[in-house]
Specification:
With 467 residues, this protein is α/β, with parallel strands linked by helices. It is built from 19 helices and twelve strands.
Length: 467
């Protein structure tokens, strides 16, 4: 038993350290299309997933996300040792040191062209590589090679629907900062998959969920991250599918870097808890802040409204029997809220943003602050925004003078989150790129963070200013 536990712990600690270690082969990329995105030359990009409307959950994107205004400590997480980590990258002004390094990366990438979805991740890869531009550029090319191969044709939901119906992996709710949470239940992996080693199907589901998240569940500059909630209930040490989970984590960590805010683990075997307790002493604070080992469901209530969690997680969400479309409920999302979902929320808000709009952009000095922060709206957006009681921006298709001049009386405000806790006692580990525990130089600047234009000021600011 001890040997099995050590194996699991060793795999957890080593996960993702080799995530960018593979070398580039001679895979030929398509020729540049003459375009530019985020300061990089581009190559053509098709859709990664093909989702029929009937499979898109009505509350994939809550209306609160469109007006949500993240506070500075949500934009950039600060650690007790002085280290910082950006959480929101797109449609916001970067700090001077970040932007200067991004500009250098853009110059060093001259002669190379990227998929637009890769170019928009430039700053994320710089963060993952701790500012090392050579590593960041290599990782971008690795991900591009992977994407061109993996998404040679779009993932079809009709083929994935059967696997998603197992309830092994699905989105269940959002935390107080509106970050979606992806549930993984290890005891629901079909026995036949274990027998036949069909773990690629599990990886496919995770990849599909990540692409779904990027297309339907985020708003650049406001909500860009997610959580993963891992349930190990009923699994002994030897039953935890370490190898397939390691593959999944490497894929997510390598090709979707900077997206996962926190890993919550519930029902962890006691033997593994002991070894992780030992591991905490040799990892960085930045690593430790990313994984929360949940011993009491009240800990989840500090981050989630109860109806965003299922009953076996201490919540009030009706027991889930149909897992796809994802069983997502509307807000409110206030931590600890016990009143259940609001019945007057507008569905299908994800239709307000185009595929380009939901991707967002990296800051460019050649554009005005307004152009850097604005969202790209669809033809349907005007009517949906009106139903939500939100103003219609002038650049929204179909907007007229009456729309843009209209004053919304008592508009619904997305409540600003409480500051992220500066945990005194870290309670888990994160798997970060190799060398993440090395000290870093933190550049302090006096720059004010330019946030995306919001329809309203944040509730906390309004209260403190007396408005």
């Amino acid at each position: 038993l001890k040997d099995e536990a050590q194996k699991v712990c060793r795999c957890i600690v080593q996960m993702n350290k080799a995530s960018t270690a593979s070398s580039l082969d001679t895979t030929a990329f398509p020729p540049p299309d003459g375009g530019e995105a985020n300061g990089f030359a581009t190559i053509p990009e098709g859709p990664s997933i093909d989702v029929e409307d009937k499979y898109v959950a009505e509350f994939s994107l809550p209306q609160e996300a469109l007006s949500f205004q993240p506070t500075e400590d949500v934009l950039i997480c600060k650690f007790k040792n002085g280290d910082t980590e950006r959480k929101i990258y797109n449609n916001v002004k970067l700090r001077d040191a970040e932007f200067d390094n991004l500009q250098k990366l853009r110059k060093e990438a001259a002669g190379k062209a990227f998929l637009p979805s890769i170019s928009v991740m430039g700053a994320r890869y710089l963060n993952q590589s701790r500012g090392d531009r050579e590593k960041a550029l290599k990782a971008m090319l690795e991900t591009q090679k992977w994407k061109l191969s993996y998404f040679s044709s779009p993932m079809n939901t009709a083929k994935l629907a059967e696997d998603l119906s197992t309830g092994m992996t699905y989105f269940i709710g959002r935390d107080r900062c509106l970050r979606p949470t992806l549930m993984f239940r290890g005891n629901r992996i079909p026995a036949q998959w274990h027998k036949d080693k069909q773990y690629d199907r599990m990886t496919d589901m995770f990849i599909f969920c990540m692409e779904y998240f990027l297309r339907y569940m985020i708003v650049p500059g406001r909500v860009e991250g997610m959580n993963i909630l891992v349930d190990l209930k009923g699994l002994g040490i030897s039953q935890i599918p370490v190898t397939p989970l390691e593959k999944v984590y490497k894929t997510v960590g390598s090709h979707y870097c900077g997206r996962t805010f926190k890993f919550y683990v519930v029902n962890m075997p006691w033997t593994l808890k002991v070894l992780i307790g030992i591991a905490k002493g040799i990892i960085s604070e930045r690593q430790a802040m990313k994984m929360a080992i949940i011993n009491n469901y009240d800990e989840l209530h500090k981050e989630f409204a109860l109806h965003q969690l299922e009953p076996d997680m201490g919540g009030t969400h009706p027991p889930v029997t149909t897992f796809f479309p994802f069983p997502l409920l509307p807000g409110p999302f206030n931590a600890g809220h016990k009143g259940g979902p609001s019945l007057d929320k507008v569905p299908n808000v994800h239709r307000t943003l185009t595929a380009l709009g939901v991707r967002g952009r990296l800051w460019e000095t050649s554009k005005s602050p307004e152009d850097n922060t604005k969202l790209e709206y669809s033809e349907e957006a005007k009517e949906i925004l009106k139903k939500c009681g939100l103003p219609v921006p002038a650049h929204c298709p179909g907007a007229d003078a009456d729309d843009t001049a209209a004053v919304v009386e008592n508009p619904p405000q997305a409540e600003a989150p409480k500051p992220e806790p500066m945990q005194e006692n870290t309670n888990g580990i994160e798997i970060s790129p190799e060398g993440d525990d090395k000290p870093v130089d933190v550049v302090e600047t006096d720059d004010k963070v330019v946030k995306p234009k919001s329809f309203f000021s944040c509730a906390c600011c309004s209260r403190t200013s007396g408005k």
